[in-house]
Amino acid sequence: MSLLDRLHARLERQPPTRHWRVGFSGGLDSTVLLHLCARLRARGLLVDLQAVHVHHGLQAAADAWVAHCTRVCQGLAIPLAILHVRTDGAASLERAAREARYAAFARVLPEDGCLVLGQHRDDQLETLLQRLVRGAGVKGLAGMPETRSLAAGRLWRPLLDEPRAALLAYAEAEGLDWIEDPSNADTGLDRNYLRHKVLPRLRQRWPGVDQVMARSARHLAEADELLGELASLDLQQARLVAQPFPWIPLPSLALAPLQRLSEARQRNALRAWLAALTRQPDSAHWAGWQAVREAGTASDPVWRLEGGSVRRGAGRIWWVPDAWQVMPSPQPVAARVGTLELRGNGRLIFTGQAVEAGWRIGYRQGGERLVVAGRGSRDLKRLLNEREVPPFLRGRLPLLWRGDELLAVANLPGLSALPGGGRLEWQPADGMGGFELG
Fold first, then answer.
1. Of 150-159, 199-208, 351-360, the least confident
2. Residues 6 or more apart from 67 whose CB is under 8 A from it?
3. What's the pTM value of the predicted model, to 2 decimals?
4. Can you tell me the distance from the alpha carbon of 293 to that of 300, in angstroms, rounded to the nearest whole number?
5. Which residues of the chain are in CATH 1.20.59 domains?
6. Class (C level, CATH) for 223-319
7. Is 376 left (phi over 0), alpha (psi -120 to 50) or beta?
8. pLDDT digits (tens, 9 = 90+) for 295-330
9. What residues are designated binding site?
10. Which residues sit opposite 115 in a β-bridge?
């Protein structure tokens, strides 16, 4: 069976899709892939086909590569989108370029569209070895998945089972022209060192190592799938416990069900939970989880991760984005307003009562007291402790003042009543782009 027919067979196993986008760098792999896709289009498939070239500007010849890709796409009558990205100031240029590339692909991928990439079996082996020497876990050693979700669509790597030699033979037989990136010869880069120095020796000593390592990656991918199913079951138990503050728009889990798990199952469940929130913590960072898990109820441990922190409160763990670490500023309230947009802190709604002149919104500084019906004047700190308000939330709770008199605390039962019988309702911003967690 030819390479084209093998690709056709794999395409038939994919979900129905109208919009197809091919990542096209101009190199051998993507050139072969684009040529194959053009031939599949000639068979009546891949009707809405477009090439996407990401211009990093990292090579002096980058503009010439754009011109080359344009000529190739014109010859195949395939539309070409050119996306410019920047990676200025990145600590790891290789990683930053990769992340910028996928972010650009995600921006232009239509809903339910499919991005097709040309990575092959040699790329998979290099990825596996690179992650192995970096100490990756099961998920990392499973290598690149053939398919995964991307933005509102999905990503597909149909050539992962094909050796680079098969792509090269196809390109030469078809007389294709492609770009040779000079950086691919730089063995100072980890991936290139593995490609030029390590893999040739492995193949010389064990001629079947490509198939063996690819099989190992598939076994690990299966193991990772099983771990994912176990994590879903464990997270389901942690989500069954009712959230005591349903108006807090932050991801959270009940702590007790997690504490009953073994250490390994805890980490497995948390990796799955954190996957959509932050970069996966490495081995050294898990000490932060231990501190959160074992802290007393009166303490406020913080497990700092990229983009936010895991905090503890009200018998739960919470994902608190970095935006919540910046305390909001006090502000006056215009008379007779019904809704007040808070600076960086969502909005307030005054229900059942018009706002009076002289009211203002402030935030906790310490030492506040509130007159509570039937109890007299009470220390606000004690009132918050009684209601088990998570420590990370206390500095963001809007307080309604009239001069030096604290009138109400938003949302908390028994504390949110307005003087005239209304109620102070707060819709906090989630710190991740909106007022509700998507």
1. 351-360
2. none
3. 0.80
4. 11
5. 223-319
6. mainly alpha
7. left
8. 877 788 999 999 999 999 999 999 999 999 888 999
9. 25-30
10. 21, 155
